[in-house]
Structure to design on (247 residues):
């Protein structure tokens, strides 16, 4: 058995990195690793730790805390190699590929991220360079985050109730993408549990929507303030839900 691991190196040859860029880079990389682990059917795909930090250029290793068989490590490595080459690996969702592209968002147009793979059997680490140009993304443009109040509809795919900021992932009914939704446990948890009791129960979530406008606009996060279980309802019910009027 082994662990999935990926070495990340940012800002090579430079002194330090703006904290907002570091925070964004780590968040985007963690989002990609979680989605990719889901594609590989890894149990508890969000359990990633940062280890082996190094000063100078920002460098650390992201390691999944669950042990997996060696063939799964090989599939993970092959998938990262294909994504870095701007190719689509087999059985990887479009949302995972889109998330991989976001890891270069904090970078200047002339910079890159280095990703290091840990081959089994003592072989040398394999390094990959990922940049806007290697992924055929627009250069010199930081993909903007747009905020709006709105709603989404879908099925709750998974629930992560532990941690400082609990969240669930919503399988959007129209795009099929997984959308991260943070929620207030004291107000929305009972509705989430009720939705999970019935397989494929459709819910409407309302709140602050954060969208990233890149080659395709996508929802990065919803800060949920209301959840409506999709029992039979009228258009008037939906209008009340979106407007915030009492049901």
């Amino acid at each position: 058995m082994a662990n999935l691991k990926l070495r990340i190196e940012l800002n090579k040859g430079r002194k330090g990195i703006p904290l907002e860029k570091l925070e964004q880079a780590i968040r985007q990389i963690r989002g990609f690793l979680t989605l990719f682990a889901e594609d590989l059917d890894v149990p508890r795909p969000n359990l990633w730790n940062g280890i082996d930090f190094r000063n100078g250029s920002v460098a650390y290793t992201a390691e999944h805390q669950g042990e997996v068989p060696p063939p799964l490590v090989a599939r993970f490595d092959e998938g990262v190699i294909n994504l870095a080459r701007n190719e689509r690996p087999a059985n990887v969702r479009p949302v995972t590929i889109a998330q991989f592209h976001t890891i270069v968002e904090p970078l200047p147009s002339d910079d890159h991220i280095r990703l290091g793979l840990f081959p089994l059997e003592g072989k040398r680490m394999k390094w990959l360079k990922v940049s806007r140009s290697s992924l055929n993304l627009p250069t010199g443009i930081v993909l903007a985050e747009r905020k709006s109040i709105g709603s989404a509809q879908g099925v709750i795919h998974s629930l992560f109730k532990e941690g400082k900021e609990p969240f669930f992932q919503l399988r959007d009914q129209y795009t099929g993408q997984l959308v991260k939704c943070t929620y207030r446990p004291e107000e929305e948890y009972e509705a989430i549990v009720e939705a999970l009791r019935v397989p494929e129960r459709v819910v409407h979530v309302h709140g602050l929507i954060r969208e990233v406008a890149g080659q395709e606009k996508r929802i990065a996060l919803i800060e949920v303030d209301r959840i409506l279980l999709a029992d039979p309802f009228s258009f008037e019910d939906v209008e009340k839900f979106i407007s915030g009027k009492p049901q």
In short: The chain has a mean pLDDT of 82. The two ends are 53 Å apart (CA to CA). Helices lie at 19-39, 70-84, 94-101, 185-196, 235-243. The chain has two domains: 5-130, 144-243.
